[in-house]
């Protein structure tokens, strides 16, 4: 008889392995493209080149964080909340940096994105504090003793 859990695990393992290779290839191509785009900084205006470099470097950091997330999932078969929040914080920071250099955002939109970064930072701190990996970090329910009435009376 076929063990469904083994089949599912094998399929998920194959998909994550393939996705890791795709992410690795994307990371290498992105890094090479970023190095070649240094010429923009040299031959165009400093604003355009610098804006493009900041965007490219932050995109590489996002790819590195996603790669770490998938490597951790591939090895431990679980997703760490800190990796996901790190990647999300980097995505929002990238959008803020690109939007500020391009002068596309209004103040209220930047405030909303900054609030999102604050909430994600709080989630990240709480994920570290209450992580199951740290002995004192995981949340333990208070030890409350409850006495059971075994006598059968209702008073």
Structure explained in plain terms:
With 155 residues, this protein is mostly helical. The protein is 74% helix and 0% strand. It has 5 helices and no strands. The longest helix is centred in the first third of the chain and has 33 residues, at 4-36. The mean pLDDT is 80.
Provide key terms for this protein.
155 residues, mainly alpha, 5 helices, 74% helix, flat
Describe, in short, the structure shown.
This protein has 155 residues and is mainly alpha-helical. It contains 5 helices and no strands.
- Give the low-confidence spans: none
What about the largest sheet? none
Mean pLDDT: 80
The SSE string, one letter per element, is HHHHH
Rg from C-alpha positions? Answer: 24 Å
Structural class: mainly alpha
Q: Give the oligomeric state.
A: single chain
Query: Roughly what percent helix?
Result: over 70%
How many helices? The count is 5
Q: Say how many strands there are.
A: 0
Q: Report, as a whole number of angstroms, the end-to-end distance.
A: 56 Å
Give me the secondary-structure topology.
Layout: H1 4-36, H2 38-43, H3 46-76, H4 81-102, H5 107-129
Helix pairs in contact: 1-3, 3-4, 4-5
